[in-house]
């Protein structure tokens, strides 16, 4: 959980939120997922973003043998140029008062 003064988080690797009913909350931070970055919510976990995230890589929610994960995009403008937001098998992407600019938003048939 990040909060307080404006912060910047840049991911060019892999972030996996993989724990039952846990929440990875990147609130109070400007988040950039670089072109090689992967953020995954799985196994009942939820990932929430704070201040208008930028995605050039992959943001995904899926099921890896447990319950599906959730990506929360609430009241965000997501700059998704060159990026993919994926609701994979068993995963959920929640959009509420959000705008996605560019890239792709993909839902697998069971996502």
Structural summary, described in words:
The model has no long low-confidence stretch (mean pLDDT 83). This protein is globular. The chain starts with 6 loop residues before the first strand and ends with a strand. The protein has strands spanning 7-11, 14-17, 23-33, 38-41, 46-55, 58-61, 70-74, 77-79, 84-87, 92-96, 99-101, 104-107. The chain contains no helices and twelve strands. The chain has a five-stranded parallel beta sheet with strand order 1-3-5-7-10, with no helix packed on it. It has a five-stranded parallel beta sheet with strand order 2-4-6-9-12, with no helix packed on it. The chain has 111 residues and is mainly beta. Helix content is 0%, strand content 56%.
Fraction in beta strands: over 45%
Apparent shape = globular
Radius of gyration, in Å, reads 13 Å
Order of helices and strands: EEEEEEEEEEEE
In the predicted model, the low-confidence regions spanning at least 5 consecutive residues are none
* Number of beta strands: 12
Our count of helices gives: 0
Strand order of the largest sheet: 1-3-5-7-10
Distance between the termini: 26 Å
Give the averaged pLDDT, no decimals.
83
Give me the secondary-structure category: mainly beta
Helix content: under 10%
Largest sheet: 5 strands, parallel
């Amino acid at each position: 959980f990040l909060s307080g003064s404006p912060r910047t988080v840049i991911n060019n690797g892999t972030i996996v939120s993989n724990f039952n009913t846990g929440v990875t909350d990147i609130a109070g931070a400007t988040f950039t997922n670089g072109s090689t970055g992967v953020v995954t919510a799985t196994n009942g976990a939820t990932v929430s973003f704070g201040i208008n995230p930028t995605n050039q890589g992959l943001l995904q929610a899926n099921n890896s043998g447990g319950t599906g994960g959730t990506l929360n995009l609430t009241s965000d403008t997501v700059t998704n140029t060159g990026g993919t937001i994926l609701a994979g098998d068993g995963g959920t992407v929640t959009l509420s008062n959000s705008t996605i600019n560019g890239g792709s938003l993909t839902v697998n048939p069971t996502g």
